[in-house]
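Late entry, written up from scratch paper. The run itself happened at the end of the previous shift, but nothing got recorded in the book at the time, so transcribing now.
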Amino acid sequence: MCAGIIPGDDGWKCEGRISAKREAGSKLVFFTLQSDGNHVQVVAKAKYFKHHLTCLPQSSKSGPENSENQLQALRQSVHVGDILQFTGSPGSTKSGEFSLFATTSTLLSKCKRLIPFKTQVTDLDKTRRNRVLELLSEKDLHIRLKIRSKVLAAVRKCLTKRGFIEVETPVVFDYGGGANAKPFITKCEALDAECHLRVAPELFLKQLIIGGFERVFEVGKLFRNEGLSPMHHPEFTGCEFYQAYAKMDDLFEITEMLLREICSNVIGMTLIKIPWLDSQPLVDLGKSFRRIDIYETFTKRFGADFPPPETLSDDTGVERLVSLMHRESMHLPAKPHTSLRLFDYLVSNQIEPECVEPTFLTGYPIASSPLALEDPARPGIALRTELIIGGKELVNAYEELNDGDIQRTRFQQQQAQRDSGDDEAHPMNELYCRALDYGMPPTGGFGMGLDRLCMLLTGSRHIRDVITFPLTKSGKD
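Output as recorded:
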């Protein structure tokens, strides 16, 4: 049987919104009914049509009993956008199109605003501020949001089958942290205290590791008060997992397996386009991801002038980076000029654009990785990687620092930068440091932006296209 037509008490029925209406004289009307992505043609013919009802609060009466008058009531009172239920018998028209030949109709809800089913939307800004209208008029948006749902389900499936348990951690708390980002700040009236919307769940998830849960993950909303762009949204969805006793090699392996499984489960292949690049190149997530050591790359590219990683935590390293960027005629990022901001700016502009194929970047300095473990074989370098696809970060993962005293020192350095005007620096968090004092097993941590993954799997160039209700600039409709 055709999708959308189901058995009912009084024959066959279908329900949905009218997206098209075509009259063929006074005794024959064709409707296109859409529901949950399905389209069904309904044929209302005076010879067979019995009555038209309404379930609206104003009236529940039918019109005159004459079937021809009943059809006229249907023709005159029902318009494109209205929601109806039809009952009747399935069959085919002379042209061979499968249809429901209606005997009764019931008006369930009246549409009082124009829905552009057939016409082209001209005011895109206005439409984007009216997500309901966009959902009604843009079929591709439905497809993207359904793929997003599949992505979230696939992430959970891939992690739970590997022994991870899903947990929930606070979204609002009296301290922030877990990432270098500017938080949203609010107030809890009950406690008369300042609270933050979380920028990451990392510190809570690692406290669960300390407490004896050895494999945990969370899928949830994160908030960063840093602006809008095609790749950034103040509220976004992330996935983080933490696994006790996992090393860097484990993180590389799990990251590749996760992405391959998610893509295979959601779109049936590992070959994807990079939608935000003009050439939209194809990349294959089924191949092993290449690796680039960024500190070695910078040392080869800039020579002896590039400061050693252990100097980046003091003013000397910052001065050398600024001098180098002036020498290379590079634009400096906005102040304050901290080692974290300068190094991330170099990576974003010098290395990431070259990483179209999936690429693990390693060789990050400790100065830009305050929560990561230091590589014992390379002083000043963190055991950390970022996965770059199409020139954009998708994953950040590292072995976790598990010494409370060293973490206090790192936080103190970050707090000094914060006091100097860097509102993205990590704040001091003594509560977390005290938790580390109980002892945390060697742990590998992973964070992935699921909105960007959805962009890849839906071919979307802008992050708002994969968010159900994105934040938009206010304006008059």
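The mean pLDDT is 91.
(Scratch paper discarded after transcription.)
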